[in-house]
Specification:
Four copies of one chain form a homotetramer. The first copy, chain A, is an alpha/beta fold. Chain A contains twelve helices and 18 strands. Chain A folds into two domains: 145 residues, 3-Layer(aba) Sandwich (Rossmann fold); 208 residues, Dihydrodipicolinate Reductase, domain 2 (2-Layer Sandwich), CATH 3.30.360.10. The longest helix of chain A has 19 residues.
């Protein structure tokens, strides 16, 4: 809203299914509620099927279409490539785009393997040196209540992080007659509940605590091993990416080759224990992404099914009036909220995507690294990989790979073991002293 | 309330701290709200300190006192021994009591080691052959909402059990300046959060599903390694068991030798995955014993902090009006409730103890095995042990011991592994057929 | 639990239905958890039907029985008369008992008419001068969360009371086929939802705010005008008081002569508006006694269906972390709780009755007025009466009677009217100054 | 998204503050998620201050601006006039627009007086005869959970409506130092909490039940009678309508001339009692628009602070598993939802506005009356007026005006009075029979 109009930022988006629709709404809306330093223009939509792509472009508001994503790379006028395809094409497209000097936003999970993700992270580092930006689409970071949680933890409001418990529960696969989509095929999706929704709570754990995972113990489960093939793959609009499932023969059933539920126990770099569960079989839970972070001075708790609320516990409050406070994160001083509506007039799912565009555009304009970076995406990929490897080896503790220095080897038994990981243990004298420090809470 | 008065059932209770007070209220109240086939009489209270024991007996309503639990064993007029001491004395007392032909109720966890528990379970079997009954005090089984949950699962209302997620969260140790009690000493308490509260959710998982644990992967954590010794051990009324911590006058701090938090992933005998967390450091959670059981046809969810409520999800309900139903388990047709108050007039913590006495007295009178039996208590002990052993060995999958036949070896990776455990996996054809079966839901 | 045994306090109870059972549990339990200055003894139970009375006495723990309440009055050894009959006999029994020098506890509502209640209040004043105590059984005052609410308001934590909104919702009459009990007959019960449950929220409003009602506008409704007569009146154990409904002939249906739902708007003595609803037709609400008090500096909210919780809003908290705090009123420093269980181990409905006995016995021993007094009970009766009169006169504003000075005449239109009632209106200058006062919040 | 492009529908919007921003988002978004029969074009924005209007147009996406709303009326190319100004200009603009043959959408409350509203309703009827459409912006009707509630009631799922209880609680005026805006001035806003937010729950009551109000008893309150004038009126962006408060430079305080809280009891045309409260002083309640409708066979409950949820109670469910079901109204078969996101990915406040545009455009294209009509808006206005008049006359029962036939005179005392209003009373025989009718529930 400044006097001079901002420069245009021309965007091409690849894929137009669920994620493509959400991203389109974000590109369209961001500048209407936020002052942006650049003016995003919805220039080019990419999809295989020409008719459906044109139809999608008309509805979602993209100016042009093409059937070949390589055209995006070759066109000089495209500034940003927004990748909304299934995971198996992320790496190839992102590498080409970065190489061509285009800023990249890529949906999560960043890739289908650690090797791909490593390649992408290296490319992102090189591109950054040339002023080309890249970001992974963990949009839940931009829910105001979770952004608030991050701020409160960073300010020390809950003290040192002691424990994280997170669940991501859905039930859309609990009915064994629901069809086999690409999300149930390992070669397309990489993994199942683990990578699809587990990736979100892994990323959120890192985002909220500012830490990384040191290691994990994992366990995977597939409840339904065969499912009916979609009656007509191409009609699967809500999940379709423009390419189809491919290779299915005449039979009516196909094998599920990913996990339906994933469990993990882990430790952060500080040694703090984490417990994770991702399931698409949790009847009655529609999008229950829940995370609770317990610290030495308090706790925070969130459930996406009530997404405008953060529950805050302050252990410094006298017991007589202590309790979890239901903070409706819709006040003007909550992150992003001032641009929207008055208190209590809640936001919805797609607002996280709009905030993501806002932050991405600001980072591009300022020449700064947007978050989460491909390095952060790579870390999530490594955690996913460690969970899978642990699961395949009797849940044995599996360190998460790092770059450069060898991974520490935290044992699962902090009490009696010899851990290379910084311990969260404390004795009462030091911690008590810290708790009384007036500076810590102010 | 029958015409002829029931025969007396003379009870001796050992220990009068927290558990002793709850048991006393139960013995005193059971016959006032329920018709009992025997008339429990609060005959003898045992505690080391004579003055305090007499004081406790007067307040709690016990007729006599003694300082030596062996007197209970020797007295012919005592029918029931109710053991409310710390875990390190359970085995010795219970074995002597059973040997002497006295019915035994013992607080959980049943023992401090698997070896002790095995001895107790064997003794209980022998005693049962002579008509002597024994029971472990997992009182949460008798909360009406949880009893209702058990019934609904047994009736097939949620179909085949697919997943269990359970937490037991408290925060009374989160302050590092809170003192070192016997519950923090391995030799007295056996373990920490694991055995104290984790035992409850292990037992509840078995109770609700009717299954046992096949194996686990565990992880323990001690956050605060040293704590101040109680100012005056003997004044620790709320946790005191009549014997005191002893021998620890001079020094100011002592080592915590148990876990503060315990995490575990496990599988039931059916192969269904379970995730468990027990923590006494979860700021803001006062007694949040939460359990959610997801089946193929629905789900049930419970939180003890709202103990009169069971949330029920029926997947057979059309999506338009489906959701978790908040069942206030205070209706006359809910278990135990008819004896109490009208709908909505909730019960409290101690009612579970009263119901436990009711069921115990009925079992004794009928010459039947009360539940949970020492065999069930032994199973919980073995799960606790497996969690500890796994935790000490990099969280590696650890089968839970069984009697007779060797333990199965379920791998943590059901999808790609070779599991000896009956799988919960299904393919859509068979399960779909089952789901449509009209008989299953009626 | 002092060295010398407390003196006995011999109690006679009249009626043994729902309320009689709750009172018995309270008399039996109070001394087991609280140190009492006198030792209540459950001496004499009164009921018309000899067999059932004896049966009740055996189950509830009363030593003797009689069929005539006048025997209670005549016996010198009875110290306390506890009146648990329907409202039509309260006045006669209470007057006789006070006259005879016996302390009186009477169930709510205190009487069936204002005239009776005035007589009782006068008698109570005279008796008090002779050291004889009396109290009305509004037991919800003794729920710890509500006692906490009272304390917080009295401490000024929510500032000046601005508004009260209260509901008491049940659904046990919503089914038109449920039978006609004495609670549906005006001559026995006085009124319907209004006096049965509306009386509780009227009393609680006074208790929490420390104010009285100046006037009301009321509206009553009877949804079901005829109901089946109970199959066998005498078998109606849960509602039966030992005397029977009487006068019913052969027909199958009888007229409902009380309200099913009562609505009212009122003003407190300070002018603060109050809105009240009592309904026994609110499907799905089992015992939803809800009250929210909004002040100038915060608010408190309570629902009996989650009776261990008080929600507290502190307007002094910065907006970023403000919200209702869910205080689980089970901490040792919450009212009455220290005598019971650890945090999070909730209390139930009957605990309010136990606390009532504790306070009553303390008041008797100390020679002090227990609360609520008959004067307070009279005020509730006058509010009930004003609601009924207003309802009969097109909901016109109806002042609540007072003793001595004529009732003020608050108009329903504070803004433009001339109100004799102290206004809660304020202008920003004065109230702003007050809000900033550092002493007020510390 | 049909083959041929839909015809354009050119919109002019007057005012660009809070409501203008919400409407702009709706006009911009509707066609992106829904197939519309006409293509809304955001043509012309009207505001007094040229600079700010142009700035707003640029941000909100309007093509042109003007400073005079009469230009809108005169231009032939404008099809729709969307009125987002304060209530005092609604009538004049709407009458002119309808006269000029333009479809009109007007924000609620429709007018500042019954006289204005009557004039508008007549004009709307005349316009409708010429194919010109009009609608009042009660957007909460288009929240999916509330639309679902309407459908369930219309289907008979809760039987006959017996009671409605509704609250609209906010706290943005609870701080007496918050400034005097136009919403606090009677000549601009018409009334205070009553018309601003009370209007919503009055309209929702009618919408959900399909009934109208027969009469009311009201009570108004102004807690803070003077407030500071805005530091700089023109900077009041969030509430500013482009015209400013004006004429108020020197003095520091101004009088509040509207109500801060409004209470009412009423009866619907069926006789069903309703209780209403609107308050902008309810500390801690940010946008708690709550409504519960109790019927003879069940109940529905909603709170806008958890806007994606409808709680449903079905009295036909056996007591053992009955309870309020938390329906997350985000399933594909919930109203409007299929166009958006998968289950559990909630919608926000502005989605109601988008749905309103969708329905309005469909009605215009189909030549049908959109709802709520000006007739419905007039009824709300008459209820507001009746509440004010009752409040000024000691809360005396005040019939709500109707057209043509004289208003019925429902007495507040249904039980003993002679009511001209159809009674909701029933006797058990007839209602029981109805309840058992198999057709009613299927």
């Amino acid at each position: 809203m400044t006097g001079t109009s901002p420069q245009p930022l021309k965007v091409a988006m690849i894929g137009y299914a669920f994620m493509g629709r959400a991203h389109s709404q974000a590109w369209r809306t961001a500048g209407r509620f936020f002052d942006l330093p650049l003016d995003p223009q919805m220039s080019l939509l990419v999809g295989r099927n020409p008719d459906r792509t044109q139809q999608a472009a008309a509805q979602l508001g993209w100016s042009e279409t093409t059937g070949d994503w390589r055209e995006v790379i070759e066109r000089d006028d495209i500034d940003v490539v927004d990748i909304c395809t299934p995971g198996d094409s992320h790496a190839e497209i992102a590498l080409a785009a970065l190489e061509a000097g285009k800023h990249v936003m890529v949906e999560k999970p960043m890739a289908n393997s650690v090797a791909e993700a490593e390649q992408m992270a290296r490319a992102a580092d090189h591109a950054a040196a040339r002023g080309v930006r890249s970001m992974v689409g963990f949009t839940y970071r931009r829910v105001p209540a979770l952004q608030l949680a991050r701020e409160l933890i960073a300010e020390g409001r809950i003290g040192q992080v002691r424990q994280v418990r997170a669940q991501y529960l859905q039930d859309w696969l609990a009915d064994p007659s629901s069809p086999l989509t690409w999300r149930l095929q390992r070669e397309r999706a990489g993994s199942g509940a683990l990578g699809d929704i587990g990736a979100h709570i892994i990323d959120l754990t890192c985002f909220l605590t500012g830490e990384r995972f040191a290691g994990v113990s994992g366990m995977l489960e597939t409840f339904v091993s065969e499912r009916p093939l979609p009656a007509e793959a191409s009609a699967d609009g809500s999940e379709h990416n423009g390419t189809g499932l491919g290779g299915r023969s005449g039979e009516g059933y196909g094998a599920v080759t990913v996990d339906d539920a994933a469990l993990a126990m882990g430790r952060l770099s500080s040694g703090a224990p984490v417990v994770l569960e991702a399931s698409r079989f949790a009847w009655g839970r529609k999008n229950a992404m829940r995370i609770e972070v317990t610290g030495s001075l308090g706790a925070l708790s969130f459930d996406f099914e009530d997404m405008n609320v953060l529950h805050v516990y302050d252990a410094g409050e006298p017991g007589r009036t202590a309790g979890f406070t239901r903070v409706l994160a819709t006040e003007p001083d909550h992150p992003y909220v001032q641009a929207w509506w008055p208190p209590g007039h809640g936001l919805g799912y797609e607002h996280g995507f709009t905030h993501q565009v806002v932050d991405f555009v600001h980072a591009v304009a300022a020449g700064e690294q947007p978050t989460p970076s491909f390095q952060e995406g790579l870390h999530v990929q490594r955690v996913l990989d460690a969970v899978e490897r642990s699961s395949a080896e009797r849940s044995t503790w599996t360190p998460v790979e790092t770059d450069g220095d060898p991974a520490p080897d935290p044992t699962g038994q902090a009490l009696h073991g010899d851990s290379a990981v910084p311990s969260v243990r404390e004795n009462s004298r030091t911690s008590h002293a810290r708790q009384n420090s007036p500076t810590e809470r102010s």
